[in-house]
Design goal:
heterodimer, A: alpha/beta, FAD/NAD(P)-binding domain, seven-stranded mixed β-sheet, 18 helices, 17 strands, B: mainly beta, Alpha-Beta Plaits, two-stranded antiparallel ribbon, about 10% helix
């Protein structure tokens, strides 16, 4: 007789007590918070400069935040014929003239060094893709493919690099506060999430590399990025820029909440090498094509609606053509050119703004350190910022016209600058480190653990869902108007004042969620106020009630800052040299037009030249 | 869309899911030497746990775990009610009393 053993799908109870693997106090010259591309490069650079470094990550380095997900890496290579002027034109025009060209120049100078560095670390190792390596693709054997190419798995390299440079790190530990002593950095505090143990770290310099964020519920891999660094920086009085520019990673119409479905092969395969695809003759069209697909495609679906699905819009992945995105123009003829472009095994077409609601536009959002500041110095002695979502470097301006693979490279450069500057500060200028006082530890511990003492209150998961339902509608994120933004702001202010103080935690897991909700609500307020302040449309900020660019008033960054009477916004004009030729006719200066823009500005648009499925 | 347990019997206790999950969804029972899918409502469906599960005890479902939007909602110490597949079909187990 044959017996069949049924699968056991019931879970064991959650263990009530979790041991903390860490001490309650540490000391380091440079503390790096967050360990993605920016954090890893910052930590190694500071260590190479001779300083002691401690890395703290809310998850596990290599697997947390957005860093596990890039599928491409782009660098500038003059030896292969790349032309800086061409790429600058593409970025400047495609970024709707808000690109920070100082940072762009940094990328031109340093991106190739980063390529060599990450290659040496094994992060850019190349290996056969799923469709060309046995039958993993046909059988959809994701786990088997990963196991076969386990030795190349880039996600493991983060910890290998940290170990190689003897940099200690705390995992699953959330930093909630940057501590100051007499106006200068003196350390950080936070807690180990699984156990709830509070941890204090004293140090001379802190690099916030905490990543970006979004208003997603479960559904897109930025759940580890919940504006933690932005919240800390705002409450230290620092200006936050770029909040009005909304970007989205779209998800399949067939599974709009399914991240794995949208990303599996790209996550598992190598990071594709990109660049060399921009020349003077295609520079204007390059940025315009990106804008047409990535900006207008989304906007038009919001304004005009989405066609009813009949099945024909679903890409047949078995017969899909392999595209080559972002590869060198001479890849096929120059045997020494390695920049093939992105050639991932295809997945179902991304078509809708599904689970991904309102992520920041890459590199545009975060702490604004000044137009000339190129080390991420945040304005407080010893405090530095680096990376996507936390440092508003804005090389890509109001949209993201850079082509695939720019962000992973750029964040590495940003991290190296912050690491070098923080190490120099720690070496030469920092006050002697003082251990975090018992009084400070007691005060901050009480603040961090406050939700555990709320006896009657609300579930942070519920608050997350409610905030999402306020921020997700297209009239708040994609096609904004004054009244809809004001309505959302009223709701967010209500949550800030009446819900956040009543969020209750019964476990340290809940505690993390409660604190993250506080951060998300503040960020939502910033996003709405910045969107209200930019009374024009530009790049990834579309106001359907003001559907045109206003060069006279808004060739500027908008910052939000903590004021005496609440949140305030300010304008920071950009240098004239970054603004392009403002005397050009409007319809020649800009290469794609928002719905309603030609009518408002009185010109007839040409027929569209570009298209794309991602739109 | 969230992680699901395919078969707890297959969990070999490698702890990869516990260590890799960015959202603190997994815990570990050192007595049973098994991982615990403790907070599926916080799963972001990235699939990293599933891809790295050495026992192949986890899967990815196209369904999202979540509660309905309500006027308000309190926190609970009790684990959620769980749907269990038994030989007689699918049943819901309701939590009784407090955790041990």
């Amino acid at each position: 007789m044959t017996t069949t053993k049924m699968p056991r799908t019931m879970e064991l109870p959650r263990p009530l007590k979790v041991a903390c693997p860490y001490e309650s106090a540490y000391q380091a010259d440079v503390i790096v918070v967050g360990c993605g591309f920016a954090g890893l490069n910052a930590a190694v650079t500071a260590k190479e400069a001779g300083q002691s470094v401690l890395v703290i990550d809310k998850g596990r380095p290599g697997y947390s935040g957005l860093s596990p997900w890039p599928s491409s890496f782009r660098w500038f290579d003059p030896e292969r014929g790349d032309v800086a002027e061409a790429y600058r034109k593409a970025i400047q025009e495609g970024g709707d003239y808000l690109s920070n060209l100082n940072w762009y120049e940094q990328w031109i100078r340093e991106s190739k060094d980063v390529y060599h560095r990450l290659t040496e670390w094994g992060i850019l190792a190349q290996y056969p893709k799923a469709a060309e390596a046995g039958d993993y693709y046909e059988r959809e054997d994701f786990v088997g493919y990963r196991e076969t190419f386990d030795r190349f798995d880039r996600h493991k390299k983060w910890i290998e690099v940290l170990n190689r440079y003897e940099i200690p790190f705390l995992e699953h530990t959330m930093v909630t506060d940057v501590l100051l002593e007499q106006g200068a950095v003196n350390g950080v505090m936070g807690f180990h999430v699984p156990s709830g143990q509070v941890i204090a770290v004293s140090g001379k310099a802190v690099i916030l590399a905490t990543g970006g964020g979004s208003y997603k519920p479960t559904g897109y891999p930025t759940g580890g990025d919940t504006f933690d660094g932005e919240y800390i920086a705002y409450n230290l009085g620092l200006p936050i820029a770029g909040k009005e520019f909304e970007d989205f990673h779209q998800t399949p119409a067939t599974a709009p909440g399914n991240v794995f479905f949208d990303n599996h092969w790209q996550y598992l395969e190598n990071i594709w090498l990109c660049g060399g695809d921009v020349a003077m003759e295609n520079a204007s069209g390059y940025g315009a094509a990106k804008g047409n697909v990535m900006v207008l495609g989304r906007v038009k679906k919001a304004v005009y609606g989405v066609p009813a699905a009949d099945g024909s819009e679903i890409q047949d992945v078995a017969t899909a053509q392999y595209t080559r995105r972002g590869g060198s123009r001479v890849y096929e003829t120059d045997p020494e050119e390695v920049r093939s472009g992105k050639m991932s095994t295809p997945v179902a077409a991304s078509a809708l703004a599904g689970a991904a609601v309102g992520m920041c536009c890459h590199l545009t959002s975060g702490v604004f350190c000044g137009l000339e500041e190129l080390d991420g110095a945040a304005g407080i002695p010893g405090l530095y910022t680096a990376g996507d979502g936390i440092h508003a470097t804005s090389p890509s301006g109001a949209a993201y016209p850079c082509g695939v693979g720019f962000t992973s490279c750029f964040c590495s450069i940003d991290g190296m600058h912050a690491g070098k500057a923080a190490a120099e500060y720690a070496e030469t200028a920092a006050p002697a480190p003082a251990a975090v006082s018992a009084e400070t530890i007691a005060k901050k511990t009480e603040e961090i653990t406050a939700p555990l003492r709320v006896e009657q209150g609300f579930d942070p998961n519920w608050a997350r869902d409610v905030l999402h339902s306020i921020m997700a509608p297209y009239w708040v994120t994609v096609a904004k108007t004054e009244p809809t933004l004001c309505a959302a702001l009223t709701q967010v202010e209500y949550m800030r004042d009446h819900v956040i103080p009543k969020l209750a935690a019964k476990t340290s897991h809940d505690l993390r969620l409660c604190i993250e909700m506080k951060h998300k609500v503040l960020s939502a307020e910033m996003k709405l106020r910045a969107s209200l302040a930019r009374k024009e449309s530009r790049g990834n900020h579309y106001r359907s009630d003001i559907p045109y660019r206003d060069d006279e008033k808004f060739l500027c960054y908008i910052t939000v800052k903590k004021g005496e009477n609440g949140m305030m916004t300010e304008q920071v004009p950009i240098p004239a040299a970054w603004a392009g030729n403002t005397a050009m006719p409007y319809d020649k200066r800009y290469h794609y037009y928002f719905p309603g823009e030609p009518e408002a500005k009185g010109f007839t648009p040409p027929k569209p030249k570009f298209g794309g499925k991602r739109g | 869309m969230s992680v699901v347990r395919v078969d707890l019997n297959k969990c070999i206790g490698c702890e990869n899911c516990v260590n890799i999950c960015p959202l603190d969804v997994f815990y570990f029972d050192y007595e049973a030497h098994k991982s615990v899918l403790a907070y599926p409502e916080n799963c972001q469906s990235c699939g990293q746990c599933y891809l790295n599960c050495q026992g192949r005890a986890l899967g990815i479902s196209n369904d999202t775990f979540g509660y309905p939007i309500t006027a308000y909602r309190g926190v609970s110490m009790a684990p959620m009610n769980r749907v269990i597949i038994t030989e007689s079909g699918m049943v819901t187990e309701f939590t009784k009393g407090k955790l041990p």
